[in-house]
Specification:
Layout: H1 7-30, H2 34-38, H3 40-62, H4 66-72, E1 81-84, E2 86-88, E3 91-102, E4 106-109, E5 121-123, E6 131-132, E7 137-141, E8 144-150, H5 166-177, H6 192-205, H7 214-246, H8 250-273, H9 278-299, H10 305-332, E9 341-344, E10 349-354, E11 365-371, E12 374-380, H11 382-385, E13 393-397, E14 403-412, E15 421-427, H12 432-438, E16 442-451, E17 456-460, E18 465-466, E19 472-477, E20 489-500, E21 503-510, E22 518-522
Parallel strand pairs: 8-9
Antiparallel strand pairs: 1-22, 2-17, 3-12, 3-16, 4-11, 5-7, 6-10, 7-8, 10-11, 12-15, 13-14, 13-16, 14-15, 17-21, 18-19, 19-20, 19-22, 20-21
Helix pairs in contact: 7-10, 8-9
Amino acid sequence: MTGPTTASDAASDSAVGEETANAARRSRWTGPGALFRRNRPLWVTAIVAVCALVAGLVVGRFVVSPADAAANTTAPAPGLVTVPVAFGPLSNDVTIRAEVGYADPVDVQIDTAGLPGAAVVTGQVPSVGTPLSALSVALEVAGRPVIVLPGDLPSYRTLRYGVAGPDVVQFKWAMRTVGLDAGDPANNVFDEQAAASVASLYAQVGYSAPATDDTATAALRSAQTAVSSAEQGVTTAQTAFDKARTGASDVEKREADNAVSSAQRALDQARAQTPDDGAKIGDLQDALDLAQLKRRQLDTAPDTGSARAELDAARARLSEATVDLARAREAALPVFPAGEVLYLTSLPRRVDSVDARRGAELKGVAMVVSGATVALSGSASEADARLLKVGDKATADLPDGSTHAATITALTPGKKSSDRWTVALSPDPLTPDQVTAVQGQNLRVTIPVGATQGDVLNVPLAALSAGPGGEERVEVVEGDPRDGDRAATRLITVETGLAADGAVEVKPVEGSLSPGDLVVVGR
């Protein structure tokens, strides 16, 4: 509840009100807005000026008079399109991608048909990268080596005495290259000398020669015995024949003469002493006649018929035994099994991959070998390939950014006309580091199919024009190309050369042309 107001209260209220009014007047002239309030006309004028400036800029940018709009749509006066005359080599190239590998990969398959048992790999399994040269052992199958020899004809049969053919010629040549004499390669027969060289071949690779068949060995021994017996029979028959042919010896004749003389003396004595003893004299006469007959027989030619027949029979038996022995020896001569040789061309070779495993039976491809040198293999369209030839030089881009020279070694058409051709290249010798870097890579290979002899003047094909006589010309700008048709120019007659990559070689015929001159390619 409020009490009555006193005089002192009224005086106090009056003082408070006056102070409040004074504070309000001070705040109006000293607060943040005091400056604006004191200069309000000036600020209003400034704001109006800024707005007018912005409006003018907007109108000037977007509002265009009809005359200005027409002027802006009119194209500027055209100038000449020019390029400078260049000076440098020109080359028309075929570019291909080529895989890097080793040359001429070959699948190696071993003929195991002649083995008596399973074709189990028992050792000498090469690792990838192993080089194979003449007399290398590529693999060991069933304890027997597979010997590498130079040649391009695969082994297709076992070489044994008497066979003839190109494989025998290849064997003799191969043996000659490793320093062994298997006979004259001009003789295509696997003769005794060729068979004898087989043992020397195996000795060089550290293996025994192939074992002779037991049956052949037994037949050889039997034939040798038969020949010895036949030779003895001939000797005996020859002795008997010689004796029969020569007749009685001087001793036998002398003995016969003595017998005749003795019989004659006995008869003469009997006749003298007992001439009447007819019986005795008769017996002595008979003895004399017999002695004389025997002597006469010693002077007649001997009968050699039976001795000759026996000698001929003995000789026939010896001849037959000798033929049998020769056959037995041939059958027992060393053979060269088809499964124990691997003929490879361009030795040495490098093992690229190995499928054979020790302890496993050999089936199919045993390994893949290739040439020991790096090769490039790519492909090109028929149109591009027909621009190339064996012996053409090429440039391969190596992974490190450098380039390396190569040479085309073979061009192989596709099986169908639409197929791409295979392009084989041989790089120039690579360092071991380069070989490692490029192995298995796909490289860009550039093959020039036409090139200038060094640096030449050249211009774009668009710079050429035809003169009234069909001659080639270029138009050289001597003034400012921006002047267009008003620019000063001169026509230079040129002789054109190689065209490549849109440029053409030019030689001035009339007038002068220098590198850097501006030639017109468009207006």
